[in-house]
Amino acid sequence: MGKLSFCGDIKKELAEMKTRQCCKDALVYGYALFGRSFNAKRICLQTESEAVAYSYGNLLSGVYGVEVSVTRGGGKRPTYIAEVKSEADKLRILASVDFGIYDGSIYRDNFYRECCVQSFVRGAFLACGHLSDPDKDYRADFYIKDKRLAEEFSEILLEHMIESHTSKRGNTYSVYIKKNEMIVNLLAFMGAGGLSLQYLEASVVKSLSNKINRNNNCDSGNIGRTVEASLKQRKAIEFLKEHGRLDTLDGKLIYVAKLRMKYPDASLKELTSKSTEPITVSGLNHRLKKLIELYEELKN
Ligand SMILES: [Zn+2]
């Protein structure tokens, strides 16, 4: 098996967590509502995660005593399908769950305690969630087919300090979370202890390196401006020299012109430090501007 993505790692950790007795209904409920194939026709879950497929299978067989087959399909990106095949088993499950049919609302009686809500959100994430690699993007998505379900799910998240937004793409609604600290909240809420810390670390490293990049870009911007200004100054000085004007100027101007020609790449600040006579950056700037003015006068 190849290296898992961050999302794959998170799902594996969440899928393999121990589930309390009181949470089992809520977890199955999360899978059932968001996995979307939980009816008399089909009870199955399709997922890219092998761990998720097996833990879903174990959950169903543990709670309802049914047989669940897990098969692997797909090409380059494998998909796993956990499915209850026997008609009798399907009926047995549907007879014993209170939430057999989705009537448009999230049925909160399935949550006995706070831990059960956490398990429900975990089931939802395992069934329809996705998380970007924190070194690429900060984004968690729940892909949901029903608008009202998306809205109610978003409300439950908000009740637990997890802000989300909803967007529609094709026939699917995405309840998504973009803020880094909100994603950390979500991971912690679902119980991904170790990995939510890892996520936090990776995102802090990313935001730091973004900051460093911005600063570097800023520096190169300054360098660009320095080079451009120096070019303009040297062009003016060359022109004044060629037209015999440079030697007729005030000694202070001649001095600065020679200094600039000697150190073409230096910034103004660097030039002041090369100068043998004391001069400030603004004084230097003033004289170089004067040279450019004279050049422009002469050229016209
Ligand atoms: Zn519970």
Blueprint of the fold:
Elements: H1 6-15, H2 24-35, E1 43-47, H3 50-64, E2 69-73, E3 79-84, H4 87-96, H5 114-128, E4 129-131, E5 140-144, H6 147-159, E6 165-169, E7 172-177, H7 180-190, H8 193-242, H9 251-262, H10 268-274, H11 281-299
Antiparallel strand pairs: 1-3, 2-3, 4-5, 5-7, 6-7
The protein binds zinc ion.
Zinc ion (ZN) binds at residues 20, 22-23, 112-113, 115-116, 119.
What does this structure look like?
With 300 residues, the chain is α+β, with helices and mostly antiparallel strands. It folds into two domains: 6-191, Endonuclease I-creI (Roll); 224-299, no CATH class. The chain is built from eleven helices and seven strands. The chain has helices at residues 6-15, 24-35, 50-64, 87-96, 114-128, 147-159, 180-190, 193-242, 251-262, 268-274, 281-299, and strands at 43-47, 69-73, 79-84, 129-131, 140-144, 165-169, 172-177. Strands 4-5-7-6 form a four-stranded antiparallel beta sheet. The protein has a three-stranded antiparallel beta sheet with strand order 1-3-2. The longest helix has 50 residues, at 193-242. The chain is rod-shaped and about 105 Å long. The mean pLDDT is 86. The protein binds zinc ion. Zinc ion binds at residues 20, 22-23, 112-113, 115-116, 119.
